[in-house]
What we know:
The complex is a heterodimer of chains A (289) and B (93). With 289 residues, chain A is of the alpha/beta class. Helices cover 34% and strands 17% of the residues of chain A. Chain A has helices spanning 2-12, 38-51, 87-97, 109-115, 117-126, 171-178, 191-203, 217-221, 228-237, 271-279; strands at residues 59-63, 78-81, 102-108, 130-136, 139-140, 146-147, 182-187, 208-213, 239-241, 258-265. In chain A, β7, α7 (191-203) and β8 form a beta-alpha-beta unit. Chain B has a domain at 37-86. Chain B has helices at residues 32-36, 69-73, and strands spanning 18-22, 42-44, 56-58, 79-83. In chain B, the strands form 2 sheets. In chain B, strands 1-4 form a two-stranded antiparallel ribbon. Chains A and B meet through α2, α7 and α9 of A and α1 and α2 of B.
Amino acid sequence: MESAKKGKTQSKQPPRHPLDDWLRTDRMPHIWCPGCGIGTAFSACLSAMAATGLPKENFVMVSGIGCSARGAGYANVDSYHTTHGRAIPFATGLKLANPDLNVVVFSGDGDLFAIGGNHFIHAARRNVDLTVVCVNNYNYGMTGGQVAATTPHLAKTTTTPRGNPENPFNIPLLAFAAGAAYVARWTMLHARDLMDSIEEALKKPGFSFIEVLSPCPINYGRRNKEKALDTLHIYQEQTIIKNGAHPAELEGRQDGKIVLGKFWDVAKPSCNELYEKTCRPDFGKDHAA
Amino acid sequence: MKLWRVPLDAGHVKVTRGIVHVIEDRCKGCGYCIEYCPTHILGFSKHYNKKGYHPPQILNPDGCVHCRYCEIICPEFAIYSVEAPKPDTQPEE
């Protein structure tokens, strides 16, 4: 009888997604195109935040401009939608002002590595305690699919109709070389690994960087003869997980495979810690964590 | 679930059961849940939702093993599963 009662109430109530607490549901459905992988990456990010068990007040989500950067507007935590490329400076300021916050930067490859490239390398060098999730869809999706700093060589975009003549960034190598404490790469299809990785990064003090490969069926896929599900099949069949692989080996493909995994994870004193130690050795010792 | 041989521990391993819920008006019909459901219990429905997409429908409700992969892969927060209540209420050893 109890189960019958349950069934009745379930059918009457509007269905409620488990992540609805972490979402601004009044803004749903979101603007991302059908088949876009940003939603999955965003969902993994929210699940990881929920999995840490910390209250929502402890989190801040910061993003710049672009498709992925719309994420901050959908998260039901304190969030900043900042100027183009400047997500990391805003996040650094937040972290320095209130070291107890857990600051997540959720943005795209164009925002973080093209216009915001300099901010990224200096935040990694300083080892600011941030978690940076970069959704890499290989092009500037929001403005119509122009070539980006991460577009693979010979890939077609609006501005490179004969194929991209340039070489793309090896983003994990850049993060590693600049001094990040945690570097990983996953695709949105490896959503559980991605979730675990983001959770680990959130708990880790220091600059954590996670690259998420994600399909862009409308602007990138259409010009490269890849439908959304084709891209997912590539992620399934042409990827290999090599935890601990050196980031320098990740350029392009290894034996025809995209290398995924956790590449770098070291303990390093964070920016706040070094500042307190150097500039205020007798003051605010309780903030030195 | 189709198995090519009966596992040796089939007697005492409990397979979880789930009930899939679809929030139809959030769906944009990408088909990821349908393609990647390990037990292939989902398919496109014939009807349209508010935005003009075909949301998934559950073809075989008994086949859900509550792996929650549809919930994890859905970019639209439009599908999720909850654990089904146990069919028999007797305590198991």
